[in-house]
Amino acid sequence: MFQLPDDCLNEIFEHIEDDRFTLHSCLLVNRYWCDVSVRILWRNIWNYSISNFSTLIACLPNESKEILYNNGIIISTPTLKTPTFNYASFCKVLSVNRARYKIERLLVNQQIISPQSLKNCTLIVAQEIFQMFMKEIPSLRSLTFYSYPNMTFNPVYLIGAKDCLKNLTELCCDSDNSTELFHQLSQTCYNIQTLTIGFERIISSGIADLISVQRNLKWFIIRLCYDLTVDGLSIFSSLMSKIPNTLIKLDVYGDNHFSLSLIANLSNLQELKLSFDCDEYFVDFEKLQYVNFPHLQVLTIPDAYPKNGLLIKFLENNGKNLKEIYISETKGCDDNSLNLAIAKFCPNLKKISVGIKKLETLKIIFHSCKNLESIKIWCGWEFLSIKEALEAFAKYSQNTYELILFHEFTERFKLVPEELESAFMKWTDREPQKSFSLVVIKYDGISLDSDENIEIINKYIKLGVIKKFKATNFEDEDYYY
Fold it and tell me: What are phi and psi for residue 59, nearest 5 degrees?
C-alpha cells in the first residue's frame, strides 16, 4: 500500500486543522493517520468538547482520581481502561477559563453535583486536570488565564511546570492575579513573544518581573480598565519602562487615559494600534506628534483620534514608511485635510481604510499612492455613495487589486443594476485591463448583493473582470478595519 511521506501527511493534516469532521474521519484510516490527526485534534483547548474533558478525567493519575472520589465526585468516563493516548500531552494552547467552564458543564450534565457544591467541585476537578496538564505537556505554546469572579489561576497549578512553560510564546492574563503567580512565571518564561494584559484596578507587582526578563517580546496588547486608579496608572507607567526594545507591535485598548509619551522610546515599532472611545484620551498626543518611528509600517486608529492637526503632524514625520493605515470611519472624515495629508505624506501605502466625503479627495489618494493594492471605502451618510466609490475606483485606481465597500448608513445606499454594470464597464475600458477582487461588507442587512446585482457580478466574474467576490458581515475581523 502506498504511504505518503511523513512531512506531506503532516502538512495535509495541518491544512485541515479547523475541519474537525475530516480530522475525526482520519482517525479511522489506520494507526499512523490516527497518531498524526489525534495530536492536532487535541492541540487547542478551545476546540475541546465536554466529552474531551470526560476523557481527560480518565487520564488522571490514581492519586487524583482518589481525591475526586473522596470529595464525592464520581464522573463516568468513555472507558475504564487506560486511554490509548496521553491526550493531555498533546495540548499546546491552554485557556484556564475555557477549561473551567467546560468542566462545570460536565459536572452539570452528570447530574451528580448539587448546585450548592458545584463551584467547589469544579475547583477540585480543575486543579487536578491543570496539574496533569503542567506535568504532561512537554512544551506549552499559549496560556490564557483571566481573573473572572471565582476563576483565578492558582499558583499551585505551576508546581513542576518548568519544562512545560519554558517555551511559552503567548500569554494572556489580567493584572490582578497574584504576585506569586507572576513571580513563578518570571522564573521560567523568558521567550514570550505575544503578551496580552488587562490592567484592572489592582496591578500585581510581579508583572514588572515578568516583563523585564523577556528576551524576545514582539507584540504587547494592553487593555486599560475604566476604573484604573491614579495609583494604578502610576504603576502602569512604571511597567512601560520595562518593555524591551525588541517590541515591534503595540496595541492599546482603553477606557482610561494612556500617557502616549510612554511609547516614544519604542523605536523599533512596526505596528501601532490606538483604540480609545474618547478623543480626550489623546490629550497628550502632542508629545508624540514629533516622535519619529523609523520602522513604523502599520497605523490603526479605529475609534476616536487626535484632534487639531496632531495626527497630520505625526503623519508628516512617519508617513513615508507606512504601508498600511486604518482610520476611524466616522472621525476620519470630519476634516478632509486628514485624507489629503494621508495622500501627501504616505505615498508608499499598500492598504488603506478611510471614509471619504469628496470624490476629488479619492482621486488624489489614487494618484499619490501608486503602490496601493487594497482600499476600503466607507460609504453612505455624508461619505461617497457606493456608485461614486465604484466609478472612481474604475477610473482612477492604478495598481489596486482589491476594493472593499462598507456601508454603515442607509442614506445614499441604493445601487440599481444599471449603475453597477456601468461601473464594471468603465473597468473593462482600462488599458491594460486587470481583474480585481470586490468585497462588500453587510451591516444590518443592508448590502448591494441583491439577486439582480449578483447576476451582473457573476457575469463579470465569467468575463474575468472580477477575480473574486465576497459578501461578508461587519463582525468579520479580516475586513473590519
Answer: -85, -10
